[in-house]
């Protein structure tokens, strides 16, 4: 059995209870060494074999899983944050399906939630934005042309941008071209929830300058939108005294 497990954004106590239990029971761990906090490996048992997937190809990862399976062992494939966001899990699952190896998926706290925690942010304020767009600039991995930053920017919704820290000048250019004001609030969160977390509030126009000043070149998220700073927003209907819900009568 292979368990795909979300490691959480960094802090070792932000893995789920289930994820921790799976780590404690695993015979073999394959962890994404570039971003998973190695402190999580302290939860594993002494006899566990540990592989760092940062140095492995997909084929090598599968080989390790296959060997463990043949020996009747349990494998945890530990991915940073939640595996469903840029986790490259589908390609592993498809090969495991072909090979008849069973697997399951234990979610984790994605770094975009870790970043909200770092900034005490709500991404969805009633009259400001009710949508969160998770995207990236293209790198070696292309982005479909219909998903351009400009096209998403046109919505002025909250945007969380992954995997793009080295491209902030171009990112700003596209965000503004697409329709955000240059002074739209933005944030850069580096290593959210890690001990060396850093966070900076800036604007769409000053993203690159802010990252440069603080030498942030990787492992960061950019949060874009008025939710980052606005002090004017509508209260929720859910907790409005005048509003009846399934669980509560309106006060008047
Ligand atoms: N599955 C992961 C994302 C993997 S892609 C998740 O759910 O978070 C890797 C990118 O995620 C990094 O380049 C960076 O943009 C972002 N990232 C991962 N962990 C981070 C953290 N703790 N703080 C800020 N950004 C992080």
Automatic annotation (TrEMBL):
It holds the Pfam family TP_methylase. The keyword Heme does not apply. GO terms for molecular function: precorrin-4 C11-methyltransferase activity. Coiled coil: none annotated. Its EC number is 2.1.1.133. Pathway: Cofactor biosynthesis; adenosylcobalamin biosynthesis. Residues 1-207 form the Tetrapyrrole methylase domain. InterPro entries: 4pyrrol_Mease, 4pyrrol_Methylase_sf, 4pyrrole_Mease_sub1, 4pyrrole_Mease_sub2, Cbl_synth_CobM/CibF, Siro_Cobalamin_biosynth, Uropor_MeTrfase_CS. One of its GO terms (biological process) is cobalamin biosynthetic process. Keywords: Cobalamin biosynthesis, Methyltransferase, S-adenosyl-L-methionine, Transferase. Belongs to the precorrin methyltransferase family. This is Precorrin-4 C(11)-methyltransferase. It comes from Candidatus Blautia faecigallinarum. The gene is cobM.
């Amino acid at each position: 059995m292979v368990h795909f497990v979300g490691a959480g954004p960094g802090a070792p106590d932000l893995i789920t209870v289930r994820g921790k239990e799976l780590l404690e029971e695993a015979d073999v761990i394959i962890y994404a060494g570039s971003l998973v906090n190695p402190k999580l490996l302290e939860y594993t048992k002494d006899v566990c074999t540990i592989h760092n997937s940062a140095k492995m190809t997909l084929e090598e990862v599968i080989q390790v899983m296959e060997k463990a399976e043949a020996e009747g062992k349990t494998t945890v494939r530990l991915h940073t944050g939640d595996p469903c966001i840029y986790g490259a899990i589908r390609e592993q699952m498809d090969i495991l399906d072909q090979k008849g190896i069973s697997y399951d998926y234990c979610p984790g706290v994605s770094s975009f939630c870790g970043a909200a925690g770092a900034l005490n942010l709500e991404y969805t304020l009633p009259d400001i934005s009710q949508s969160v767009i998770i995207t990236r600039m293209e790198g070696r991995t292309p982005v479909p042309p219909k998903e351009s930053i400009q096209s998403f920017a046109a919505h002025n919704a909250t945007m969380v941008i992954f995997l793009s820290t080295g491209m902030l000048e171009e990112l700003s250019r596209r965000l503004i071209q697409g329709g955000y004001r240059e002074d739209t609030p933005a944030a850069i969160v580096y290593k959210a929830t890690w001990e060396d977390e850093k966070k900076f509030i800036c604007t769409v126009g000053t993203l690159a300058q802010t990252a440069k000043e603080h030498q942030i070149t990787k492992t960061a998220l950019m949060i874009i939108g008025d939710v980052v700073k606005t002090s004017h927003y509508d209260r929720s209907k859910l907790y409005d005294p005048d509003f009846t819900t399934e669980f509560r009568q309106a006060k008047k």
